[in-house]
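hey can u check if this looks right to u? its 190 residues, i copy pasted from the old doc so theres a chance i mangled smth
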Amino acid sequence: MPDILARDREWSAAMRAALAGDGAAYRRLLAELVPFLRRICLNSCARAGLSASEAEDAVQETLLAIHLKRHTWDQNQPLRPWLAAIARNKMIDAARRRGRRAEMDIADFEDVLAAPVEADNFEREMDRQGALRLLDLLSAKQREAIEAVSIRGESLRDAAKNLGVSEGALRVSVHRGLKALAELYRKLNA
């Protein structure tokens, strides 16, 4: 337990530095979070009866959500529960998209506190505009897939039907689009 608390303090400090504009701290933090997020997603996949490959998609979606929602984290709270809640929500979304009922043990959420919603401000608007600009750099196919599934929260089945593609093709477009977004973000912040 002390190791987890020490890691949470380190991650919280890194996120505070990132929110203050330290790009190097943010890149290091995201790299350190991947094994933690992967473990949460793999455990959730096992409980929900999903394949392990679903976990990798959820990890990428979680990283993107962390980036887009990082301004909602209360800097006076530990970071780990906030991260775990985002990962669990992405796994629930994945289970729903696959047409399975998502059931999660309530004990998984005992240390998760809701982050307070702050009033819109200039920085949040700039982050939103930056994310939209990154989406515009994707191919139309990838952008439409990510907007449908990850932003609007449509089920895989509904999004595929609306976009006139198969569910498998949509899943590939979302995965490749998220991977491309991560690469674009790394290049822009290098």
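Residues 23-48 form the longest helix (26 residues).
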